[in-house]
Amino acid sequence: MASAAQSPVYRATTTAPVNIAVIKYWGKRDTTLNLPTNSSLSVTLSQKSLRTLTTASASADYPAEDTLTLNGKPQDIQSSKRTLACLSSLRSLRKALEDADASLPKLSAFPLRIVSENNFPTAAGLASSAAGFAALVRAVANLYQLPQSPRELSRIARQGSGSACRSLMGGYVAWRTGEQVDGSDSLAEEVAPASHWPEMRALVLVVSAEKKDVPSTEGMQTTVATSDLFATRAQTVVPERMDAIEAAIRDRDFPKFAEITMRDSNTFHATCLDSWPPIFYMNDVSRAAVRLVHDINRAVGRTVAAYTFDAGPNAVIYYEEKDSELVAGTVKAILGSSASGWEGPFYEPLAQLNTPGVALDKIDTRVLDVLKSGVSRVILTGVGEGPVTVEDHLVTEKGEAIIN
Ligand SMILES: Nc1ncnc2c1ncn2[C@@H]1O[C@H](COP(=O)(O)OP(=O)(O)OP(=O)(O)O)[C@@H](O)[C@H]1O
Ligand SMILES: C[C@@](O)(CCOP(=O)(O)OP(=O)(O)O)CC(=O)O
User: Fold this and answer.
1) Considering only CA atoms, which residue is closest to atom 14 of ligand 1?
2) What is the value of ipTM here, to two decimals?
3) Of 32, 35, 133, 290, which has the fewest Cβ atoms less than 10 A away?
């Protein structure tokens, strides 16, 4: 443990959410600035279920190098260009404040000690980098008392991990690809707050909590360089879908939202398969989840559920609260006690439910078996708010890291 500081220790702590895209970011037009080839749109998920908690602290007494401890383990941030880029941009903004007001403490000159905790597996396709970099940027911005809006801070978070720029806001968030070569207009913006469509629910089927094979950054470079389908997706398909899904969100039109979400996930994974060598993120369990959603929608006679998959096999199934029994109730009946996680604030409408919302004989029998043996855990959640400032610091007043 680091020794206690004698000089003042300045601290700020924030939580930040995970977001799951319904129009996927996949491909960079500039790898240094981390600029995307297409716009993307996501739903911010409630921090009652998944969240990062990060404390940023600064003190003149800290050893010279900035440090980051993640889930109790020191991270090598000096060799993480992305983290260094975020910290250097934030420091410049603080320095400008200090230059304009001599009474401010010179925090920009102090080393940083950052301590963070994810309450879910890191690097397992659960968007830890999104919540992690959003929390890091928000915590340091709070520590430095920066006046910049979440939209302006998204330019910095984007350099940590592209998808992180969308976790600085709650609700329904777009990341506009932008046109400027310097990336100054490649920013996230709120399309609608969570309160506009609070009934949106997300059921995460955790298929594998292992570290994934091909990291997103590497996978998308391969796709950009080798897939013939990719250019059509980025230039034609996604711009049309962005307009259509924003209209669906504005109108709270779930069937439209759902179809675009499922089609965009499928197109993204098609470009992965079209890469050379091909990249497979979905597996047999993922495909069973796709089939399940289509079977449920067919049996109900309207679109009540939508699947989407990131760079890994986990399924995220979106539905509206009023259809909880039909969607989550059916999944609960299939998985029974073979999957953990049937709990938490979003579980209430299902707690007393003992029969599936959709009769299981309407679902392909192979799908039932594959899901039962392949899904280890579920996370029941819904649309939620952006980062929240909190007082439960992970660094003591004397500057010592608190490892839970
Ligand atoms: N709380 C955190 N604070 C700072 N950095 C974090 C935090 N959590 C995760 N990261 C960074 O994100 C990396 C994991 O990102 P990666 O893209 O591999 O996985 P993921 O985000 O969980 O999956 P995906 O992006 O496919 O959904 C970690 O190795 C770490 O560098
Ligand atoms: C499939 C995705 O989840 C890809 C996320 O990629 P990252 O944001 O992790 O990539 P980097 O910018 O290289 O860090 C789709 C999405 O979230 O939009």
Assistant:
1) 123
2) 0.96
3) 32
* pLDDT tens per residue across span 219-244: 999 999 999 999 999 999 999 999 99
**In whole angstroms, what is the distance from residue 245 CA to residue 56 CA?**
36
C-alpha to C-alpha distance for 371 and 375, rounded to whole angstroms: 6
Protein residues whose CB sits closer than 6 Å to any atom of ligand 2? 21, 24-26, 34, 40, 129, 161-163, 216-217, 310-311
The CA–CA distances, whole Å, from 343 to 97, 332, 381, 390 equal 46, 11, 10, 24
pLDDT in tens, 116-147: 999 987 766 788 999 999 999 999 999 999 99
List for the chain the helix, strand, coil content (%; round to 5): 40, 20, 40
Fold of 200-382: Alpha-Beta Plaits (3.30.70)
The DSSP result for 58-80, as a single string, is: E-TTS-SS-EEEETTEEE-GGG-
Contact between 362 and 299 under an 8 Å Cβ cutoff? The reply is yes
User: Distance from the CA of 128 to the center of ligand 1, in angstroms?
Assistant: 4
23 in Cβ contact with 81 (< 8 Å): no
C-alpha distances (whole Å) from 225 to each of 32, 275, 277, 383 are: 16, 8, 11, 35
In single-letter form, the type of residue at position 335 comes to: L
pTM of the model: 0.96
Q: Which CATH number fits domain 10-193: 3.90.215.10, 3.30.450.40, 3.30.230.10, 3.40.47.10?
A: 3.30.230.10
Residue extents of the structural domains in the chain: 10-193, 200-382
